[in-house]
Amino acid sequence: MYLFLFSIPNFVFVVLLCAINCICGRMFGEEGFYPAGYYDSQQVQYDRIKNALTKLEHAPQWVSDWPSPSIKMGQVSGVAIDNMGRLLVFHRSRNVWDVNTFSDRDVYQGIGDDPIPDPTILVLNDTGELVDMWGQNLFFIPHGITVDIEGNVWVTDVALHQVFKFTPDQRQKPALVLGEKFIPGNSDTRFCKPSAVAVLSNGDFFVADGYCNHRILKYSPDGTIILQWGIGHGSSPFVFNVPHALTLAEDRGLVCVADRERGRVACFRHDNGTFQSSFSNWLMGGRIFSVAYAPVHGGRLYIVNGPVSQILPVRGYVIDFTSGRLIQTFAPDAGLKNPHDIVTSPDGSKVYVAELSPYRVYKFVDETLKNESLLEKVEKNVTVTSATHVKPTATVEVVGSGGGGAGAGRVAALVGRAGGAAGAAAAALLALAALALRSARNNGKGYEAEPLVH
Q1: What are the counts of helices (DSSP H) followed by strands (DSSP E) for the chain?
Q2: How do residues 85-119 score in pLDDT, each as one tens digit?
Q3: Where are the domains of the chain?
Q4: Fold of 57-365
Q5: Which residues carry a binding-site annotation?
């Protein structure tokens, strides 16, 4: 048999092997010899994607007239929401990161140039107007940004290989700097193109040392290293390929990482770095650029993927944390092209996406979650208002007894029907009338039982 095969010309043998390969591929595609759908035409794949997107809720909705068109920005690398609900946009102005920006040893090629002279942090209000800006003459290639519970702003600069913390009252001089200026490294005190920061409510913080070292580091508030994890090779859950963004799920005790080139979101216990879970989906493709978390409906992950092929769409996606299911998708009408970061409000009603190119930020609003949030506020207000209305009734109950108690019951019923200040005023008048009536009755009984002695 083997002698016969070797006697066949090489090209015939190759053709025979290819035929066997194709037959086996079609027979055993779903068992892993070839992935399911490997031989599908491009149209079949498009239809499959369209069908999958149709099954998802298309929310939150894009706000097309946001922000103000007068606001100019460069490559937008990061977005964050401050404690007043305003959006912070971290952009590169006239600088860009391209193939000539770094050497093959990750050294920035613009050493000797001046830092970006324009404000690199723009502050936008809810209507998309520019209300503040700062960060001029500080940065070279901005990347990640976040705001902690105390209002401190944390940023990373991949050219400087550094992490910065700015307090609310000092925006030109950082309160804390980690890393050595322009010097890439791999130690507790040196980074190589750090990509993101996430800060716990107790002040401990995480740094994603993303592009070269593929690791996560945890520090105490003063910058003392606590622990680190992550390697660049292998197949374990601790292997990262560009940990690009971080988000905290403190209600679950987790820090989650957008592992960009592995196409997953990996979550770890934030106290000791133990791996907990990982999220991915074929529809999102093999590149996940950023992730944000909102503790609503049991927890939701908001994700933006990146361009992989001409077939898979670049969009925003929402994953239900408990079930791991993909439940929502969103994008502007023209779609996304190069999303780089995402942030969501704590109630999930507002989502912002930063794009490197075109240079812009998108706002999305989830009306359902927005209405739920408003309803919670109204219910809180109603509770307070009801307590205010009950006060006159409680006062009557404390003062009166017997017949006064019956009067109090009638007052309470009337207060329940009345609303606002008019109801409260009517209740007070009725309460006084009830007290006066009771007092008159008591006085009358007193005269009858005990006449005055002259």
Answers
A1: 6, 25
A2: 999 999 999 999 999 999 999 999 999 999 999 99
A3: 57-365, 374-444
A4: Neuraminidase (2.120.10)
A5: 79, 92, 143, 211, 244, 260, 340-341
